[in-house]
Amino acid sequence: MDITVVLFVLAYVAMALGHLPVFNVDRAGAAVLMAMLLIVAGRISPQAAWNSIDFETIGMLFGLMIVSAAFVEGGFYRWLARKLADMPVGPKTLTALMIVTGALLSAVLSNSIVVLAMTPVLCAMTLQRQMNPVPILLAMCFAANLGSTATLIGSPNNIILAASMHLSFVEFSKLTLIPVLLSLFFVWVVLVIYYRKSWMLTADMQAQIQMPDHNVQVNAGMIDRGADPNKLHNRTETIKAAVVTVCVVAAFVFTDWPHVMIALGGGSVLLLNRSISSHDLLRHVDANLLLMLMGLFVVNEAMAMTGLLTEFVDWIHGTGVNLHSIFQSFFISAAVSDLIGNSPTIMLLSPFISNVKEGVELLGAAVALGTGFSSNSILFGSLAGIIVAEQAKARGVTIGFLEFSRTGLPITLISLGLGVLWLTLIK
After folding, report:
1. pLDDT, position 138
2. Which strand (E) or helix (H) includes residue 276?
3. Using an 8 Å Cβ cutoff, are 389 and 142 in contact?
4. Which of 126, 189, 296, 364 could disulfide-link to 131, CB 3.0 to 4.6 Å?
């Protein structure tokens, strides 16, 4: 039991820090490593470890990742980012357009893939227009985090929540859409106020922007090293992906088919392709995220088998904390997700909130709003934030911890306040 506790704690320390202390092991590696050690140590049998992995969660994520990957391979994200950045509008209007676009795409597609595909193009296009790329990138990141909160398929943490609590797609969105829309408006307000005097590049900003490879030019044609400037937007494949996406969402809304089957069905249609190879589609699947979740399923199950988690939750309840309380779960999920990340937080909490007898939809919405709204407070609070910062850094644009939080923290506090107000009104 002592080994189980140590390995469990180490797994979540890695979730909090982003890596295993001392070792060059990231979150996914730590989760898989601890799961393997628990099996080797005999704390959980190989069969029990396999059975602990929730196929519905992994299957939904995998299928929806393929759907989003089809838009990447079709060139849709690059085309859209260029169209937006080329529009003859001012920075404030462009910021508003990025907020709307990022939120809409992230509500039905994987928010991490959306920002991964669009960040390089937006960096290049804004620099070409002598605009400060930071507020545009932050607008996309903040909107992606908030927009993904509005639906059950917008983010991995919502997908995990949907699978564990068996939430309704329509009912969930009815409970989350209003506070998300209000929060998106305040994203624009905060960014406009903060960057009101720094929309355009100054000489100092230009001096700080240094491309890692000076042979790489920042222009509309060559976005990435080795990219083909003649690669066109594949309209046929984009339309096909859009039709499949509409069908998937419609199936979620109008049928009671198992969510995992809908997601896998959509992914399989796009995987069976004559013009885009399966290799090209599958390389956009976030294998690290899937492995991290599978590892955490095993780690959590091994810990649950000791009985200590149940005892801990009983002790917590004895202190007056109630995980079935709408508001307490809202704030607990918000605080914990900033410490260990959104998906690990949901995985940690779901066994204790999935057995609620009444108000399942409202509790699920509260937890989703808590984790989603807190994502914008700190740079590593969400995968989208990390991706935007790393992708921008690779292209000479620095978004530091303080730069992110100066606008992200006020947006988070406003969003959380709106969430509390909304939950109070509908409770």
Report:
1. 94
2. none
3. no
4. 126
